[in-house]
Amino acid sequence: MYLLPEPLVLRDITPDDQLFLDALYISSREDLLQINADPEIVLQIIKQQQQVQTAGIRDVYPGAQHFIIAYDGQAIGRVVLHVGERDIRLVDISILPPYRNHGAARLVLQSVQNAAQAQGLGMSMAVTKVNEPARHLYQSQGFVVRSDDGVIEQMVWPASRLQAPMTPA
Q1: What is the pLDDT of residues 97-137, one digit of tens each?
Q2: Which domains does the chain have, with CATH numbers?
């Protein structure tokens, strides 16, 4: 359903991926890693936040699709998608720091946009206003702000908008 240029692939998450997912979540919480406290306490806070996020996704998006983003067989990120009646919700996307800014997230996003367009669906997502790299990526792919509460922007991509061919960043 989501076609990517090789060697980039999406694959289902398995129980064997948990250590990777833990490391990925830790790498995505730079805000908490900056806390001036005992590193074990900070790690415990991060683990609790990961549990809250996992439970929240399970509760709000019970039918969500969870994928590992792999490059040449190596896990480099994850994406969580929820296919609804009117849109595909990008619930979460995260890439390990060494693989950021190399086009993987853009290619995944384009693949989901192409699948949404083929199904006559739009896309939606929420992004924090301080996450400038993500906001720039989404805007460059045609997403527009639907609402803004001062902290989080709700962004949408209309299904009627033509999608450019998939190209690396």
Answers
A1: 999 999 999 999 999 999 999 999 999 999 999 999 999 99
A2: 8-157 (3.40.630.30)
